[in-house]
Amino acid sequence: MSQKVAINLLWMVPGVVGGSETYLTRLLRGLNERRSNLEYVVFALPQFAEAHPELASIFKTEYAPLTGQVKSFRVAGENSWLAYQCRRQKIDLIHHGGGTMPVIRTTRSVLTIHDLQFLYFPEYFTRTKLTFLRAMVPRSAEHARLVLVPSEFSRRTVIERLHIDPSLVIVVPHGIAPREITELPTDIRERYDIPGPFFLYPAATYPHKNHLTLLRAFVRHLGAHPESTLVLTGAKAWQEWIVAKEMAQRITSEIRKLGIETQVRQLGYVPSSDLEALYREATALTFPSRFEGFGAPALEAMARGCPVIASNATALPEVIADMGLLVSPDNADEWSDAMSLMVEDEILRKRFVEGGPQRAQLYNWDLSAGILEDAYNHALETTL
User: Fold this and answer.
1) Is there a single domain that holds both residue 276 and residue 151?
2) Are residues 101 and 27 part of one domain?
3) Are residues 194 and 343 in the same domain?
4) Can you tell me the distance from the alpha carbon of 6 to that of 87, in angstroms, rounded to the nearest whole number?
5) 140, 193, 353, 366: least surrounded by Cβ within 10 Å?
């Protein structure tokens, strides 16, 4: 008789939680492509069906009677509706993918912690959010059978800052699609009015994404390369984070202040096929983030032959290795020099264009899903 594993996605409001949504949905796709002795059930918000119809049709999916727009309701749902469903459906193991677990638990659990940014940059969080994370993340990690993390950097921080037994913390890296989109839009530059060489930064306006440093570097770069454009994309930042809304306003204000309105494209959310085309057309990805538990856009760029300039901080050097330029996150002059180098040095850029996809092949969702499934089986075998 197969054992039942549930994946709790009640925390995941599609389109607003960023990289953690990409991470978990890709893992689900990887799990689907494997032959397994486990039976999977997904618990999700109603929006999941529209955002990810393929996954909703593949997996047995139960939808919570929640809209997901109010976090307190989602937390209450995890402690009531989810607990009831686990008992009713006789779930053997549940995977909580959002960094915390409900207080009321009816079955053994594994937990994904994407990063511990709140311990390093508490000023980027509202007081309410910070209080919740400080209370719930350590408690959740302590009660999980296993803690899953996306990188060795995140593993080290979980072990050191939360004092978790190293044998219980497992790296399940991001995985990219084994098959890429083949039919890409050919009018991407015309539709978004992007002439000449351009740099791409796909990121929501969270403070740690460090857009302001990039803007200042870009102004300096324009002095030598006035034909360049900076393209900013990204889903709407998490609605509960006032700091993200304020940063979006600061970014727009800074663009006006620097006088670069005509050289910057703020596109917001773009469809995946458009983003794919932008990766393939861009001179380079610029990724000045101060804190990343993994840094999936850097991996996605390398996979598509888009050279990468990224911060030399947190998990990014681990992902990129020597297949990109690593720059101090807050040094605008270094960023400007790196951007100019990508425009001027065709030999260097060609090395990254050709070597990036080879580096990215080390990460695929079949490998990641295999590690995840092994973790499930290990947690199921452990005793209370």
Assistant:
1) no
2) yes
3) yes
4) 12
5) 193
Query: What one-character DSSP code corresponds to residue 123?
Result: G
The CATH number of whichever domain residue 356 belongs to comes to 3.40.50.2000
117/65 Cα distance (integer angstroms): 31
Same-domain check for residues 167 and 282 = no
Number of domains in the chain: 2
Structure tokens at 278: 């932008």
